[in-house]
User: Fold these one by one.
Assistant:
Number 1:
Amino acid sequence: MSQFGPSTRIGVLGGGQLGRMMIQEAVDLDARVEVMDPSAEAPCRYLTHRFVQGDLCDAAAVEAFGAGLDCLTIEIENVSTEGMEALERRGVRVVPKPAHVRLIQDKGLQKQFFADKGIASAPFVLQDADGDRGALGYPIVQKLRRGGYDGKGVVVLKDASDESYFKGAPCVLEQKVAIAKELSVIVCRRSRDDVKAYEPTECVFDPRGNVVQLIVSPADVSDDVKARSRALATRVVDELDFVGILAVELFLDEAGEILVNEVAPRAHNSGHHTIEANATSQFAQLLRVTLDLPLGSVAPVRDAAAMVNVLGEADAPKGAPHYSGLRDALDTPGVYPHLYGKSSVTPFRKMGHVTVVGDDRAAVVATAKHVLESVGVTCLKK
Amino acid sequence: MSQFGPSTRIGVLGGGQLGRMMIQEAVDLDARVEVMDPSAEAPCRYLTHRFVQGDLCDAAAVEAFGAGLDCLTIEIENVSTEGMEALERRGVRVVPKPAHVRLIQDKGLQKQFFADKGIASAPFVLQDADGDRGALGYPIVQKLRRGGYDGKGVVVLKDASDESYFKGAPCVLEQKVAIAKELSVIVCRRSRDDVKAYEPTECVFDPRGNVVQLIVSPADVSDDVKARSRALATRVVDELDFVGILAVELFLDEAGEILVNEVAPRAHNSGHHTIEANATSQFAQLLRVTLDLPLGSVAPVRDAAAMVNVLGEADAPKGAPHYSGLRDALDTPGVYPHLYGKSSVTPFRKMGHVTVVGDDRAAVVATAKHVLESVGVTCLKK
C-alpha cells in the first residue's frame, strides 16, 4: 500500500466527531476516507468519499463495508470485532487489533488484564448480576461491563442501602479510590520501536452529567507524578502489545499512588487540545498509525492548553442546535472552537469543544472557565 | 444569518486547494460549504455538502449556483463578476466585492489604480497589442492584462530584439525593478475597524517555472522594511475599501524602496505557512470575513516557518500522482505536508505544499531546502 493519495482507502467504523477530526487530518495526506455509521446524519456524512449507513455491531455489515479497503480504524469501541477479524483475514490492515477492542469493550476483562499484569488499579470484583455487593465494603463504584460511555453505566454506591445500583447486568464493583486528581495519558504506538506518549492532562468533571468539563494540559502535578503517569500508561500499551492510540485514564489518589481507571482504544476527549497545542495531534497520529507511517512528535508547541466540551444545555429540547457565545469566543486570542456538525442537540450531548492555548497556565484556565460559562448550545423551539 | 451550524450556507467559486484548505477550517464552525468548479475531479469534490460542476466565467451559471446561499467567496479570481453582482442583488453576502475582483482581474486596471492613488509601483505603460515596446527602455516586463497566473502570462524582455513577447493581446509593460527581495504581505480586512496584516514573508522563485519555490517567514529584512511593507499593504486595502483577504506582492528594490508588484483578492500561496505558524490561518480568516465574524490574531506561534510547493516533476507524464519522500518528511519534527487531492499530475503543477516550522530560522530554511530536494511527485506510467 502506498500511503499517500486517493488510491489508499481508509475505512472508519463510526462517523462521529472523532472520525471527523481524523478526516480533517486525512485531507492533508490526500487519503480517501470511507465511513460507516448507523446514522444518516453522522458528523462525517459530508466529508467522505463513501458513506455507508449500517449497524457497527453487525459482523456481516462491517465486513461488507470494509472489503477492499487498505486499512480500517475505529472511532468508537462498540463495534463488531468479528467483523474486524474477518477484514484482517481479507488482508485489511486493522488498527487497533480486534482482540484489544474486545478486551476493552468489557470492563471486567480490562480489570482482569490489569490484575494479571500487575498494573496498579483499584481492587475489584466481577459480578454476574444482583449478587451481594458488600465484598469490598463501601463506598464502591459499580460499572456495567458493557456499553457504558461518557459516565453512563457508572454509579457510586455509598452503602448497602443505596438503591441506585444497576440491576440484572454483569458488572464490575470497584473500591472507590480517594481521588486527588483524574489524569489522562494518550499513548500512540505503531510498533515496539515507535511509541509516543503525550504529557499527562488533568480532567475536571461536571458533577451534573459526570462528563469531563475541563481538560488542562499540562496537569498540575509534580514532575515525578508526570513521569510515573507516562510510564504506567506506556506499560499498559506495551503489555497489550497495542497498535493504535490508547487513552489511559488514571487516578492520582490522596496517597500519591497512580492507578489505571480505564482505557479507550481510540482518539479521546482528553486529547482534543493536541490539535492546537502539540506538534502532532492525536488525530494525525491515529491516521499515521493506521497507514503505518512514522508517528510524529508529541512535543507541546504552546505552554498551556485547556479544553471545554460544548454540551447540550440541561433543558435543551431535542432539535436543531443553536449556539451562543461563539462570536465572542472567536474574538478572544488563543480560543479555538470546534463544532461537530451534529444535526440535533439533546441535554448534555457533546456538540463540540473549545480549546484555549497560551503561554500562561492560569490565564488559559481562566479563559477556559469563561468559555464554559459563556458558550452554550440549545434548541430554540418551544 | 447565524454564522454557526449547517443552516448557514457558504458558496465557494473554485474547488481547488485554496477552497479545500478553507473547508478544513469550515468544518470547525460546522458551516455548510458548497462548491462550484469546472472539473468533476476538483480537490474539494468529496468535502462539500453540494458540488456543482460548471463554468465559473458564466454569469448565469454562477448566479444559479449561488441563489439561496447566505454568503459566497472565491478561491480563484477568474470568475464572473457579473454573476457575483447578481448574487449581491439577491441578498447574498459576497466576499470579496465584485468590483475589486474586476479591477484585479485586469493587471492594467490594477496598475492604473496604484498610480491614481500614489501607491508605489514600477513605472508602466498599457498597450493594446503589438505596438512599440520601447517607451520605458529595457529591460521591461510584459504582463498579459488578463488570465495570467503562477508566472504564466509574464515575460521579461531584455531588449528590442527580444522575440519572446506575447503578441496580439492587451498587456502591461513595466520597467523591470532591480529586485533585492520579493516580499508578500497578506492583509485581512472585514471592515475599516477590523484589519489584520501578517508578518511579511520572503519569496524565492524557481527560475525554471517562475513559480514560488520557497516562502520564508519572517522575511530576512530590517524591522523598518517590515513596518513599511505592512503599512504599504494595509494602505492598498484601505484605498480599495477592500473586504476579504488581499495578498499584496511586493518588491524590495536595491535602493531599499518598496513597490507593489501585484495583488490577489484571495488566500495565497505565500500564506500557507499560517496554518501551522500563526494563531489564525489565512483560511480561517477568509472564512471569518466571509461569515462577518471577527478576525483572529495573526500573531506568530512559531519563531520561523518556511513553505515549499510540491510541484509536478518537469518530466512527469500526465496521470495519477505518485509521491516520493513524504514518509521521511513526516518523520522529521516540524515538517507538515499538505497534499491537494489532485487526481492528475503535470509538469510544475502545484500538487501540494510542505510547511516547516521551528524556533531557529536557519534550521527551518535548511530543512525546507532538504524537503525541496527530497519530496517529489510524478506519474509512474511510461
Number 2:
Amino acid sequence: MPQKLTLKKIAQDLKVSISTVSKALRDSHEISVETRDKIKDYAKKYNYKPNNIALSLKNQKTKKIGVIIPEIVHHFFATVISGIEKVANDKGYQVIICLSGESFDKEVVNMDMLANGSIDGFIMSLSKETLERQDYHHLREVLNQGMPIVMFDRAVEGIPCDKIIIDDVAAAQSATEFLLRKGKSKLAIISTVDYVNVGRLRTQGFKEALLKRGIEVSDKDVLKIEDTENSTTIIENFLKDTDYDGIIAVNELFAVTASKALQKLGKSIPDDASIIAFTDGMLSKYASPTLTTIGQKGEDMGGLAAAKLIERLEAPQTIEESYETVIVKTSLVERESTP
Amino acid sequence: MPQKLTLKKIAQDLKVSISTVSKALRDSHEISVETRDKIKDYAKKYNYKPNNIALSLKNQKTKKIGVIIPEIVHHFFATVISGIEKVANDKGYQVIICLSGESFDKEVVNMDMLANGSIDGFIMSLSKETLERQDYHHLREVLNQGMPIVMFDRAVEGIPCDKIIIDDVAAAQSATEFLLRKGKSKLAIISTVDYVNVGRLRTQGFKEALLKRGIEVSDKDVLKIEDTENSTTIIENFLKDTDYDGIIAVNELFAVTASKALQKLGKSIPDDASIIAFTDGMLSKYASPTLTTIGQKGEDMGGLAAAKLIERLEAPQTIEESYETVIVKTSLVERESTP
C-alpha cells in the first residue's frame, strides 16, 4: 500500500522544517527560490496535493467543524468544547477535534490535514509555540482559500477572522480592585511568560489597577512561569519569605498550588492571604478552601464561536469583508478564598 | 451548494432513528424488509454513499487514527488522549478526536463519518447509552469492512477486537482489603448504575473482598448514581446518619464529594472515615485532604491502545484472527485520605 505523502514526510525526506515545506508549497517569499523549487519538484514528483479547499467548498459542504486546541487537560478547553458541541450539533454540524499539544508543527500539520476537504471551517486557540514564533502563515493560507476561522481565547491581532475573547485586562483589573476593596494591599500575580497573550494581558490589568490606586508595582511581584511541569516548586519558592496578602493566578492550577503553599507556610486563607483564580473549573470548586474565581464562561465562548462560524458558513457570499471580535463578559464567583 | 446526505438527515426525513437507518443500509435483519427498502430507496435516490472503507483501505493509508470517547471533562480520558498522541505521533500518525457525549446516536454518527475514508482505525471507549442498549452494530460493521478497533476502559465482551482494560474487580478488591487492613470495618462504595461495566465490576470486587472476610454486604452499602448532575446532593443524603468508616468511590469526583460531605458532618479524615478513589487525577492531588487513589494509568492505557492499533494496521494480513486483551496493572497511590 502506498503511503500518502504528507507535509511531515516531505520535511523529513528533504531535511527541512514542516513550516518551510508548508510555506514553499504556497510560494511564500520567506523561502528562497532554490528551496521552494526543490520542495515543489519533490511534491510534484510524488504527487503531493496541497489543500484544494476552494474547489471542495464550491462543490459540497461537509457540515463538519474542525477544532484545534492546545490541550484538553485544562478544564477551560473542555468546557469550550462542550459549548461548541452543543451549538454545532443543534445546527446539524459534527465536530472534529485535534490537539496541537502547544506545538507549532503539530498545529500546522493538523490544520493542513483537516483543511484538506474534511471540514468547512475552523475554531481554534493558538499553541504557545505559535504565539512565541508569531508565525501565522497556516492561518492566512486557509483564510485565503476561503475557509473561515474563528479564534477564541488565545487569539491574535491582524488575522482577518472573527474572535471570541474575554477582556483579560479588565478582568484582571476588577479582580485586583476586589482584593484592594477587601483591605488587601500587598499583592502578587502568578502568570505565564509574556508571549502567551492572556498571561501578558492579565498581568497588565493587575499592574494598571494597582497604579491607578497609587500603589507601586515591582517586577518581583510578578511571577512568570514557563516551566509548568515544575510549577509547584517554582510557586513555593516564590512565596517563601514574602508577606503577600493577596494573590491573583492566571489559571486555577497555579491558584490551588499557591493556596497549598501558603497553608504549608502556616498562613490562613482568606485572612492572612486571599486568592483569586482565572478559570472557574473543578479544581476551584473542590479545593479547600474553595477558590474565588473569574469565570471565563468557556461554554458560552464555545457556543458563540460555533454560532459565529456557522453563520459565516451559511451566509451568502459578499464582496465586503468585516470581522467581529466578541468580548465575553467575565464574572467574579466568590468563594472561601476571599473574605 | 448541495448538502451532503447524512445518516442523521435520512433519519430526520424519514422519521426513524439513526440506528434504524444505519442498520437498514447494512441489510440488518433487525429491521423489517419494508423499512429497509424504504430507507435504501431514499438513500439511493439522493445518492447517499455508505462507508467505502474496504475500498479506501486497499488504495491508500491515511496515517490517521480516530478516537471516540464519551467526554473530555474527566481527567482520565484526557490522560488517555495524551498517551495516544505520544505513541501515534512518534510513529507518524495523526489523531482525530470525536466525542459521543455519552450518546449512542452521536457515537454511531461520528463513527460513520470517520470510517468514511478519514482514518485507518479506531480507538474507543463506549458511551453509557451504547452500554445500556447493548447495541454494537456500528462496531461490527466497521470491523467487518476490515478496519481495526481497539477498545479501552469501557470495553465489552464479544466484539472481535483488541482491548486495553484494567482488572476492575481485582483493583476494587485490593482497595477494599487495604481499608480492612487499616482497621476499617464499616465500608460503603459509591458507584455508577450497573450497565456501566466499570462501575458494576468495581462493585463486584468490593463485595467479593468483604465476603471473603466473612463480612456481610447489604445493598444499602452500595450507592449507584445515575444522575451525575446531582451527585453532590445524592452523596450527602447517602452519608447522612451513617457510620461508615471507609468509602470507595469509582471516580475521583464522587470521592472528593464524599470527602467534603463527611467533613461537613463533622467527621475527620482519615481517622473517622477513610476514602479511596479510582482515577489518579488533578482533583485527588489537590483536594484537602489529598486522596488515596487507584491509579488507572490513563497515559499507559492510551499508549498501549495506539501501539496495538498501529501494530495491527501495519501487520501483513493473516487468515487467522486472534485478539488480545491487555490488562494494565493498577497501583494504590497512598495519600492523606487513608491512615
